[in-house]
User: Fold these one by one.
Assistant:
Number 1:
Amino acid sequence: MSRLPIRRAAAEASIELQGRPLGYLLKRSSARRTLALRVTEAGAVQVNAPLALPHGRIEAFLLRHAGWLIEQLARRTVAHTWQSGMELPYLGGVLHLDIHEGVEGQALCREGDRLCCPARLANPAVAVTAWYRRQAADLLGTRLAALCRGQGRIEPPWRLSNARSRWGSLSVKGVVGLSWRLIKASPAEIDYVICHELAHFRRRDHSAAFWREVERLCPGYATVRARLRENGHRYLQF
Ligand SMILES: [Zn+2]
């Protein structure tokens, strides 16, 4: 008995995802019937595909999984960079992580643009994330209160969320949710997200009337919104 030999082909390919080129290894095989997507520990992307599948189908598959892919890549990047000098986006600028001996206590402290982390802390990722959440609870709350005051409205209840897929939300009960990761964005971007959610009190949809309300609460929001879209992936790395 002889079987048809399995034919294989491998090639580097590239696709634009959320405005950035992403290189990947495309491995085709006559033995495959389905598409598979894999991100290695080192952050390399590999697609396994049937030998003759049209390239358009492969690209559509990648676009469909873009959100997952970007999150996986962000995780891998960060896993390899929790060390002194790491740049941490914060309020539109950057803090530099400074892990060193001799820092008293267990807490992180900020000195100018340095975020000092005691070396004895086993996991800087956990400590930094906790620090960011505390800052977010404080600063986002302050901004929400100030914007409501400025708009002459009663401040709605709000909560800090862990969402990666959206910066803000408004629950049916009228509770504003703000992702703690928003604290990495610039003050203008933060204000836009808060105003966006406040505008939902008047319009729950994303109709033209809703966007007029956003413009009323946050004049010139369109530029800021575009910037947030462009920068957003940087704020999701941890
Ligand atoms: Zn919305």
Number 2:
Amino acid sequence: MFKLKVKTGDSVLIRVGKDRGKTGKVLRVFPREGRLLVEGRNLVKKHVRPRRAGGKGQRIEVPSPMPVARVMLVCPSCQKATRVAVQRTPEGRRERHCKKCQAVIP
Ligand SMILES: [Zn+2]
């Protein structure tokens, strides 16, 4: 399966859409869909029905998954939005590098 360069816990900059220019933390990735969930971003209003008869329904805002192509990874060492290089170490591990400062991104 195609592996995404962004993973849970990463900080990303949103480049397209209503949250463009904002950063956020990745809560979940959906590799099969090529989408990710960013904390507090791409919010949609969800209508919640009342739980009991006579109770009140509400509209709550929840994040919805957006395409990975909308975001760029923010490098934890140089704090810039960057592209990512993926390399295999001699031991066969997968290692991500920042294309701007070359630092290894955990
Ligand atoms: Zn960097």
